[in-house]
Structure formats: structure tokens, C-alpha cells
Amino acid sequence: MRGWFKSFGFYMLVVVIVVYAVFPFYYAMVTSLKTGAQLFNVDYFPFTWNWGNYLAVFEGQPFGQNILNSTLVAVAVVVLSLLFGVTAAFAFGRVCFKGRRLLLMTILGVSMFPQVAVLSGMFELIRGLGMYNNLLGLVFSYMIFTLPFTVWVLTTFMHDLPKELEDAAIMDGASPWIIITRVFLPLLWPALVTTGLLAFIQAWNEFLFALTFTLTDTQRTVPVAIALISGGSQYELPWGNIMAASVMVTLPIVVLVLIFQRRIVSGLTAGAVKG
């Protein structure tokens, strides 16, 4: 009987956590299918399916361009973060040099600064480089927060790879780049998927830099575009359109997490247990 109560309590706790995490997104989906006065009715199931809000999001603003901007920026951040992260992880995890641990801790420490603390300095740097109101400026600024985490996770994973593989490749005359791309890279897939997906999510959802470093509607990303959706007056926000836009930009992240969930778990737990 005691074991039954423990199992029941465990599953009830899981249900509470799932409902707490999923209900806001579910209610956003329900609200996105309402129009007019229906928006103010508390319904937990969409009795009427009105897709007009999804079409209205693309009217009067370049929301399709905003989605494309977010996709380009997020993909570029992931590619550059993984490229620099893998090469840096090889240096930190496989090459012995003086000051390696101090440098690695410094890289990790950069990610501890809040965005607002570096906002003014980044603004002057972005403007000085001529990347203001340009997607390149967003890619450059997002790397400050995605690259340290990528380097740290990949370094831990790289350090745990068998040294015999590297020694055998060196004896066969392989260069460091060949060792990284043909020997280590196939073994790094769990860590690459984990860090790449987390970098994609962070770049996709980032708001402060995207709001500060872009000026025109055609250069903005989806978080800023959703925040700037307005109705006829200051006090009449089109909540249906806002919820529809939120659902559209959240679904790709949900799908990616569901597809790569096994890789994410194995990547996050890599190196946690050593036999």
C-alpha cells in the first residue's frame, strides 16, 4: 500500500508539472482561434475554429520577413557557434597549454553578465562596425551568449573521448583538422545537437538586442514584431493576432525539441557518470 501511494504521488506530481508547463501554450492556441467578444470568454476548448487571426498577422506588417530574419539569424548563430565551439573545444580538451583552465573559466564567466550590463557597449560596437539595423549585428551580438556555453559543453565532451583514437589518427598522418572532422565529430553528435538546439532557441527568442540593434520593420525578428503588434488604439490590442503569432513562432521550437529529445538528454548527461 505504501508503494502504491508513492507511485500515485509521483504521477500526480508529473501531471501537475506538465499541466503547469503546457497550459499557457495550450490556452494561447485556444485564444488564437477566437475573435471579437469571444476573446473575453474563458473557454478551455475551442468550440469555434476561426483561422482569421493567423491570416491577419501577415496583413499590414512584414511578419513573413520577420520569421525569415529570425530563421537566418538563428541558423547563422548555430553554425558559427558550433564551428568555433568545436575547434575551441579541441584546443581546451585535447591540447595542454599554460593558462588553459583560466581561459576556459574566463569564457564561461562572460556568459554570467546580464544582457543589460553589456547593452550600451554592444550598441557602440555594433554602430562602430556599421552593423546597426543589420542582421549581421544580431548574429555578432548573440554569439556573446551562445558561444561560451557551446565551448564549455563541447570541451567537457571532447575531454572524455578516448585518447587512443587521437593517437591512432596521428600515427596515420592525420592533421588536427582531419582529427576533428573525421574522428571526433561523429562522436560529438549528442553534444552538437544539444548545444546547437539551445543556441537556436536562445537566438530565436532573444528580444533586448533585437529591439535595440534594429530599426526598420523589415530587419526585425519575430519577438520584436510580436511586441510591436498594435490595434486601433493604445488600449485595444489585438490579442487574437498576438496569440496567433506567438503560437506560430513557438511551434517550430516544440517540434525541434520533440524530434531531438533523446539527443538532448544524452548530450546534457554526457560526462556526468564515469565508469
Describe this structure in words.
The chain has 275 residues and is an all-alpha fold. It has two domains: 1-50, no CATH class; 61-268, Orthogonal Bundle (MetI-like fold), CATH 1.10.3720.10. 71% of the residues lie in helices and 0% in strands. It has helices spanning 2-32, 52-56, 63-94, 100-110, 115-128, 135-159, 163-171, 176-184, 189-205, 208-213, 222-227, 239-259, 261-268. Mean pLDDT is 83; it is low at 271-275.
CATH architecture of the largest domain: Orthogonal Bundle
**CATH C-level label of the largest domain:** Mainly Alpha
Strand tally is 0
Radius of gyration equals 23 Å
Main beta sheet, described? none
CATH fold field value of the largest domain:
MetI-like fold
Give the overall form. globular
Note poorly predicted spans: 271-275
SSE order, one letter for each helix or strand: HHHHHHHHHHHHH
Number of contiguous helices: 13
The name of the CATH superfamily of the largest domain reads MetI-like
Q: What would you call the structural class?
A: mainly alpha
Assembly level: single chain
The end-to-end span amounts to: 36 Å
- Number of structurally distinct domains: 2
In percent terms, what proportion of residues is strand? under 5%
Percentage of residues in helical conformation: over 70%
Can you give the mean pLDDT? 83
Short description:
With 275 residues, the protein is an all-alpha fold. 71% of the residues lie in helices and 0% in strands.
